[in-house]
Amino acid sequence: MKRYIGMILLLFVVACGQTENPGPTDTTSSEPKETDPSAEYDRIGKGCEESSFSGQTFADLSEEEQALYEIPEPFEGESLEDVQVAQMQMARYEYINESLESQGYAGGIEMIDSVGNFNFLKGSIVVQLKDGLKGEEKKRKEAIEKAVEDAQEYYNDQAVVVQEVPKTKDELIDHQNRLMSKLASKESLEKKIVSTGLCMEQSALDLVVREELSEEELQFINEQTDVDIKIMVQEPNKKTGYVTSSGDGRLSLATTSFQHSKEDIEIGELVTVSYETVMESYPAKSEAIDVKVHKPKQPEGADLNEKEVIQQSLEKVEDDSPHQAIKDITYHQQSDEWTVRIRLIKGMDESQVQDMAIKDE
């Protein structure tokens, strides 16, 4: 199956007599941080590095070569540079495939995994090939090298570049699968792992975890792999807000629904949800890594707490909006009543704010 490049492109107060709370807040995870290599762990900290080759953009091409590409008008939200690079990727990819098909390889460059790998850097294609292959793999490699030469002659020598790698993609995936199978046997590690990846240039693995690993865990990983591995720490995203619906293992904060395993999450509770990714749907959906329930606040002089007040206010909402978000909640000591500001959400671009008055009784 072809990798369609167009989709691969460049392609998340306290005042006297009253209390006030902010609405939902989001904390986006920072860029992954690399675990420092240690002499004790000879396999850890020597993994992925940025390629020395930066790839081509449309502006790097001669006018003669620019004329070879059909550049459509960008869609709304797309940049012209992105569209140009997409067309460069597509044209060069198809050219290599045609060359390989003419040599009898109907699968095109997709059959490269047993002899190396390929990827894109801007508008260029990086072809990575293992040396010392024999038999059918050697023939495949030679066919790919011929296709690369054809593409370089037709476009330019930076359109497609070749790098020599110690292992093929299939070999590195085999190392990855064996490592993950071993890590799954250690419960503390399995819960911390976010993802794994391949570093073809260095024939190394990339392991992303949710928090710093212990010395024992680092030692365990070091003993399980015979390829280099770089460990990166990426803390999860966090969202804090008041629960507006709960049941069947899901809770909602505004228009995001989280699947969770925590018992007895109640409407009106203030929670902080840790998560990694959100499905691009409406409403948005995600799986909670952890749910922290905060103790409901009860201002001095009040008989009710925040959770009880929010529950009452949501019960009084007569609007048929499918989603609600608690913007803030305030207790007025002098009048002995609460004000709950609710955003009623009918759709992605349609909402209204309503203030609900709740007697403290």
Structure characterization notes:
- It comes from Halobacillus locisalis.
- The protein is built from seven helices and 18 strands.
- The chain has 361 residues and is α+β, with helices and mostly antiparallel strands.
- It has four domains: 52-165, no CATH class; 170-233; 236-293, Nucleic acid-binding proteins (OB fold (Dihydrolipoamide Acetyltransferase, E2P), Beta Barrel); 306-359.
- A seven-stranded mixed sheet has the order 2-10-14-15-13-12-11, with no helix packed on it.
- A hairpin with a 4-residue loop joins strand 16 and strand 17.
- Helix 2 packs across helix 3 (135-154).
- It is elongated, with a radius of gyration of 28 Å.
- The model is unreliable at 1-23 (pLDDT under 50).
Strand order of the largest sheet: 2-10-14-15-13-12-11
Question: Which word captures the global form?
Answer: elongated
- The class by helix and strand makeup works out as alpha+beta
The Rg value, from CA coordinates, equals 28 Å
Number of domains: 4
Strand content: 25-35%
Largest sheet: 7 strands, mixed
Task: Tell me the span between the first and last alpha carbons.
Answer: 65 Å
Outline the low-pLDDT stretches.
1-23
Summarize the amount of helix as a percent range. 10-25%
DSSP strand count: 18
